[in-house]
């Protein structure tokens, strides 16, 4: 497999699948440029080597036709700022005669951004049209680099199919995908102990596969968020109106049984902040999670749980975190998630390797300004879950041989 580290891009036209799927405000300004920053090492290497970079991405979910609010021209200002004000060229369609002409006339050291790939149904929806579309994307370029980890779990034209148009020597992952893979492999394969997985979020059903895969290799499993209550109810606790997947009670018991068989210590929250309705202004009280009063629902973990979880995290050498501890979008129920973010930061300071993935946990890390204080913040929620579940990601398979 070709590696980007020692590849010489001099004189090459390089098409790079980046993930510029960034949030924009109503003035079309980028409100979080994490993903743009993530793509910089690869872009910089190509340019500094004396190659030309052609960048392609999707943005949002357009209905397979041009839509102003999803135009990639909105990211050009932010990209240019990160590259010291460098001029960035823009093609207002990702394929067609004009885009091809712009690719051909692009000089070494220059950057061209192609318009949103998903303005064409052949990028992601029309399977029959994908190959011809990918061929047009590849036309006029010598090398393909995939650096869009966030879409690596999708078999789309630009993430997987296009790779067939390049020889093995001329296709590779960018620096971002490389570090994503390295971080996840470290969590999965490292023998360092104790290894702790923290799973939160709404539903057990979304996390069951990753939990099952991790059980043989972890020492501690911390569970938080809405899925707590499926476990609590399965064990006979009173959960009031808390979130519960009634059809997953047996599954929850099965996880607990398998954890025991694998000598994994499971930590469920002992106490919770309850609300009388699912609302930012709800009245609150505190109870044990298995004694939630009738008419109340647990929306965050309580102080005792924060303290138990933080201790386990701080004693760990490897920590994976996916999913919030409570309804962190509402201030009243965000403390548990913030405190877990802080515990991860302090564990990192103490020498642990900490990996955070999934939109909400990443948002919590960013909200608490701790992104620099943890080992790795993944740019791909769904892609990370699928990789950690042991699935083969089409975008990875297309290049990794
Ligand atoms: P997920 O997408 O499965 O990671 O779930 C994230 C969502 O779970 C967030 O929007 C949280 O607000 C929500 N969530 C976390 N804890 C709870 C809870 N105790 N009750 C209801 N929803 C929750």
- How many DSSP E strands? 15
- Helical content (DSSP H or I, runs of 4+): 25-40%
Count of separate DSSP helical elements: 14
Structural class: alpha/beta
In CATH, the topology of the largest domain is named Rossmann fold
Give the secondary structure arrangement, pairings included.
Blueprint (H helix, E strand, L loop, with lengths): L12 E5 L16 H16 L2 E5 L19 H7 L6 E3 L5 H9 L5 E4 L6 H4 L5 H9 L4 E4 L24 E3 L1 H15 L5 E5 L4 H11 L5 E4 L4 H7 L14 H13 L3 E3 L3 E5 L8 E5 L8 E5 L1 H12 L3 E5 L12 H15 L3 E5 L1 H9 L8 E2 L3 H8 L5 H4 L4
Parallel strand pairs: 1-2, 1-5, 2-4, 3-4, 5-6, 7-8, 7-13, 8-9, 13-14, 14-15
Antiparallel strand pairs: 10-11, 10-12
Helix pairs in contact: 7-9, 8-9, 10-11, 11-12
This protein binds adenosine monophosphate.
The site of adenosine monophosphate has 16 residues, from strand 12.
Give a quick rundown of the structure.
Helix content is 35%, strand content 16%.
Give a written overview of the molecule.
With 401 residues, the protein is an alpha/beta fold. It has two domains: 4-173, 3-Layer(aba) Sandwich (Rossmann fold); 180-388, Phosphoglycerate kinase, N-terminal domain (Rossmann fold). Helix content is 35%, strand content 16%. The protein has a six-stranded parallel β-sheet, with helices on both faces. A six-stranded parallel β-sheet has the order 9-8-7-13-14-15, sandwiched between helices. A three-stranded antiparallel β-sheet has the order 11-10-12. Helix 8 packs across helix 9 (249-261). The relative contact order is 0.12. It binds adenosine monophosphate (AMP).
